[in-house]
Amino acid sequence: MKNERRRRCLNLKTLQNGSKPQASKKPPTPATSASSTKSHTKRSQILPPTGKVNSIDQKNVVKRNTTPATIPKRSSASIRGQGFEPRAATSGKERSTSKPTVSMVLSNNSESYNMWLQRHLEKERQKKLEEKEKQKEEEERKKEQMENAERAFRQWQEENQRRFLSQKQRREREERESADKKEQEKLERRRNAEKTFETWKKRQEEKLREERIRRRQEERHRVHSAQEEKRRQKAENQKVYQKWVEQSLQRQREIRQMNLERELALRKQEDEEKAFKEGLASEAYHLWLEMKKKEKAFSESLAYKILDFEHESKKRWPTPWIPTGNTVPRRFVGTGNRRRTLEKPLSIVQQRAKSVY
């Protein structure tokens, strides 16, 4: 419908300008038609939902509608019929009188827009009324559900209250019956206990009397047994004491004999050690005298003097070296085999003290 309206407006403009109508163009692509449909839907949603349309909106609508647009593809039969159809021999005056004016186009567009707008508003009102009806029905349904739930809750509460009261009455009745039964059982147990106590009391008195007689007899028997045990224990103790005295005297004699033998053995061992030490000391003294004689003879020999001279020559000088001038002497890099005097290790030879012999 929209494309048809645009095509009509385009034909009217070409007729007013005196030019020939353009041939049908290639039909639009699906993407172009979809975008034009979306733009038209957006324009229809942006327009105000009232019956009045101002002049500025009408002009904008006319401008948008009069823009050139793609014309849908026509059938080959219609094109063929239009191509071979002879033109009507009409003059220029008749053509000019049949041309539609801009005001006619604007009035047609405004009337169609008003009709479309009225239909659109009517649909919106019908839709809102239907939504209100649905909402009202939903509210009534929820209200009815709440009333049914409240009614069911009251019935359940009343039934529960009746059940609770009946259970309470039955429980109280059972408690009273149980209390009466317990009281009767308590009285019966008390009578039985009194009878049992009397029987137990008589039996206990007899038992106490027999116990006293038995205790006296046991006391006499225990005293007699204790005396017999004491005499027997005393005799055994006397025997044990005599035996211990004899063993003690024998042990003392053995200890004195062992001490005497140990003392003799120690004295003999000390004498042997003393003689061994004296012999060892005498031998060591003679050996030391022999060593001193050999040492004295070696100290007087030439070999000892040579060794003493070498030892003294290896010692450090007692005073450091003092340079002859204030110049630093030239240093020579020594080989690996030669070492400096200061780098020599300090060797201390342990010497024995000279003997007086």
From TrEMBL:
Compositional bias segments (type: Basic residues): 1-10
Span list, region Disordered: 1-196, 215-237
The organism's place on the tree of life at top rank: Eukaryota
Bias (Polar residues): 13-22, 52-79, 98-115
GO molecular function: microtubule binding
Ranges of compositional bias, category Basic and acidic residues: 119-162, 169-196
GO terms under cellular component: astral microtubule
InterPro entries named in the record: MAP9
Single biological process term from Gene Ontology: mitotic cytokinesis
Protein name per its UniProtKB record: Coiled-coil domain-containing protein 34
Gene source species: Bursaphelenchus okinawaensis
Lineage, top ranks: Eukaryota, Metazoa, Ecdysozoa, Nematoda, Chromadorea
